[in-house]
């Protein structure tokens, strides 16, 4: 499966992996910024998001990313992941550490921590809305839950459009199970920064602490103004952090 993607610029590679609330469009501003700074930037859509069709057979997001990198001749990159993209990024860096020059995890999800009550409550409400056919309600729930207070109304509408697209693609397809292999965060060798948002759900604060503890040498930073999607909520405050990290890795 070749994921829909954008590849722009020249220079050292940076891979931007999107949240499950969004698609690769969430990184369009940061992609342009990195290209201008002299980097080659890859933004894929995972299967079932954006312009990538929903999976029709067993799949694994991490393997999809590796296949895409192989097809493009990208041997090594800084990998940046938001939420679900952060989960995929940490697993990729654990399984193929030599291919990751730096790892930036932004409000990352993980398979290593059981859901907390706040996440279970969100999931139950979303399931109930979708089962009732209330896609508008499910979209509004996601925007309300995942977009922090610093975001503009325009940003909220943008996230809503991306989430709606994901629902349209996924609801039109049948359920297909993902196949995911085990991994060990202790195998990560890349310089790692774990970023969290003060206004995010408690679950993601716990994940950030776990990742910072288990990834060797990882540093952590909490953004006191951010919710779950800081690069969208206030890019003027997020972008310098991103550039600082990438430049620190690539020089």
Question: How would you describe this protein?
Answer:
It is built from nine helices and seven strands, in the order E-E-H-E-H-E-H-E-H-H-H-E-H-E-H-H. By secondary structure, it is an alpha/beta fold. It has one domain: Alpha/Beta hydrolase fold, catalytic domain (Rossmann fold). The radius of gyration is 17 Å and the shape is globular. The model has no long low-confidence stretch (mean pLDDT 96).
Instruction: Report the average pLDDT across residues.
Output: 96
**Beta-strand share of residues:** 15-25%
CATH fold-level topology:
Rossmann fold
Main beta sheet, described? 7 strands, mixed
Helix content: 40-55%
Classified by CATH, the class is Alpha Beta
- Described by the principal axes of the CA atoms, the overall outline is globular
Detail the poorly predicted runs: none
Q: CATH homologous superfamily?
A: Alpha/Beta hydrolase fold, catalytic domain
Strand order of the largest sheet: 1-3-2-4-5-6-7
Number of domains: 1
Q: What's the Cα radius of gyration?
A: 17 Å
End-to-end C-alpha gap: 33 Å
Please provide the count of β strands: 7
| Structural class by sheet pairing and helices | alpha/beta
Oligomer classification: single chain
Give, in order, the helices and strands. Answer: EEHEHEHEHHHEHEHH
SSE blueprint:
Elements: E1 5-8, E2 13-17, H1 28-36, E3 40-44, H2 61-72, E4 77-82, H3 84-95, E5 100-106, H4 117-131, H5 135-146, H6 153-171, E6 192-197, H7 202-214, E7 219-223, H8 230-233, H9 235-250
Parallel strand pairs: 2-3, 2-4, 4-5, 5-6, 6-7
Antiparallel strand pairs: 1-3
């Amino acid at each position: 499966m070749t994921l829909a993607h954008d590849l722009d610029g020249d220079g050292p590679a940076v891979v931007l992996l999107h949240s499950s609330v969004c698609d690769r469009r969430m990184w369009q501003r940061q992609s342009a910024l990195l290209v201008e700074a002299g980097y080659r930037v890859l933004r894929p859509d995972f299967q079932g998001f954006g312009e990538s069709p929903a999976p029709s057979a067993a799949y694994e997001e991490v393997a999809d990313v590796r296949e895409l990198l192989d097809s493009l001749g990208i041997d090594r990159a800084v990998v940046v992941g938001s939420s679900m993209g952060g989960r995929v990024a940490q697993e990729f860096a654990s399984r193929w550490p030599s291919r990751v020059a730096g790892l930036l995890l932004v409000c990352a999800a993980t398979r290593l921590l059981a859901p907390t009550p706040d996440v279970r409550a969100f999931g139950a409400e979303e399931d109930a809305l979708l089962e009732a056919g209330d896609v508008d309600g499910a979209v509004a729930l996601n925007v309300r839950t995942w977009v922090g207070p610093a975001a503009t109304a325009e940003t909220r509408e943008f996230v809503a459009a991306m989430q709606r697209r994901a629902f349209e693609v996924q609801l039109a397809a049948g359920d297909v199970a993902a196949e995911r292999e085990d991994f060990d965060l202790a195998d990560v060798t890349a310089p790692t920064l774990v970023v969290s948002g003060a206004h995010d759900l408690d679950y993601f604060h716990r994940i950030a602490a776990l990742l910072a503890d288990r990834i060797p040498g990882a540093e952590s930073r909490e953004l006191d103004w951010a919710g779950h999607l800081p690069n969208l909520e206030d890019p003027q405050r997020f972008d310098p952090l991103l550039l600082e990290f990438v430049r620190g890795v690539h020089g």
